[in-house]
């Protein structure tokens, strides 16, 4: 594993995406920073974390033959890598809020940003960005955020958590190439936040509706049963889970 440690950087994902365009990278080239100044989140959001208290890193992985139709397996594998690492640290009540927010006690503890290089219908490589709140004690104006510290009431060694996380990520990502898609999906679904419960959703027009999360489709869409008992699937941009 080639680990590049940077004291400070705007975004580890931006750095690694740029690097992958100018150099041939080995699998599991990792960029880790103590202080990410302009962390990027999903759908153009900002990802903030306090310097030296959390983990912000990105992992490069190339694929020999991974069709774009299997893109969801990446999100499943990375989410499960995080879940498995947090389980090793006995973090309570872990779940995955679709598509890939990692939660503890219904609050967000980690986020994932996967950026893929696509060529002729194949995912050539991915830069997998992970932000995990480890020892952060407060989250100003982010009442729905938490950290390992807040959840488990103790501080953690950042280097050890990082090592554990990488180990679990490799195990889960290897399942994609071993074509263990179905088992990845099934296990991902077993951690799905609010599965089987009535939840409130909002569509892009602001319309709210009730539904019950049933699981995810092979393409990673959320499968919801609505009030009239009909089943619908939704893409991440087409839906917000409110509560
Ligand atoms: C989200 O939940 O919106 C995704 C957050 C992803 C944050 C990580 S931190 C390391 C990597 N570099 C970035 O700029 N973003 C990801």
Separation, N- and C-terminal Cα atoms: 40 Å
Secondary-structure class: alpha+beta
Major sheet strand order: 1-2-5-9-8-7-6
Report the portion of residues in β strands.
25-35%
Judging from the principal axes of the Cα atoms, what is the shape?
Answer: globular
Order of helices and strands: EHEEEEHEEEEHHHEEEEE
Largest sheet: 7 strands, mixed
CATH architecture level-2 label of the largest domain? 2-Layer Sandwich
Number of helical stretches of at least 4 residues: 5
Ligand list: biotin
Radius of gyration: 18 Å
Number of domains: 2
CATH structural class of the largest domain? Alpha Beta
**Percent range for helical residues?**
25-40%
Assign the CATH topology of the largest domain.
BirA Bifunctional Protein, domain 2
Return the average pLDDT rounded to an integer. 95
């Amino acid at each position: 594993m080639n680990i590049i440690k940077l004291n400070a950087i705007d975004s580890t994902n931006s750095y690694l995406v740029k690097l992958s365009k100018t150099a041939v990278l080995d699998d599991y080239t990792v960029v880790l920073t103590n202080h990410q100044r302009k962390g990027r989140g999903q759908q153009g959001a900002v990802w903030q974390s306090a310097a030296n208290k959390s983990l912000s890193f990105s992992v490069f992985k190339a694929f020999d033959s991974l069709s774009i139709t299997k893109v969801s397996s990446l999100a499943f594998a990375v989410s499960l890598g995080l879940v498995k690492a947090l389980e090793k640290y006995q973090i309570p009540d872990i779940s995955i809020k679709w598509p890939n927010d990692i939660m503890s006690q219904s609050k967000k503890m980690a986020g994932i940003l996967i950026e893929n290089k696509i060529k002729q219908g194949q995912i050539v490589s991915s830069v997998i960005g992970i932000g995990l709140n480890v020892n952060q004690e407060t989250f100003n104006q982010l009442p729905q955020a938490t950290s390992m510290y807040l959840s488990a009431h103790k501080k953690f060694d950042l280097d050890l958590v990082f090592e554990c996380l990488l180990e679990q990520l490799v195990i889960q990502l290897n399942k994609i190439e071993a074509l263990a898609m179905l088992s990845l999906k099934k296990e991902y679904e077993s951690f799905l936040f609010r599965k089987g419960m009535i939840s409130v959703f909002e569509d892009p027009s602001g319309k709210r509706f009730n539904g019950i999360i049933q699981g995810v489709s092979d393409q990673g869409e959320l499968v919801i049963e609505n009030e009239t008992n009909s089943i619908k699937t939704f893409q991440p941009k087409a839906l917000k889970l409110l509560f």
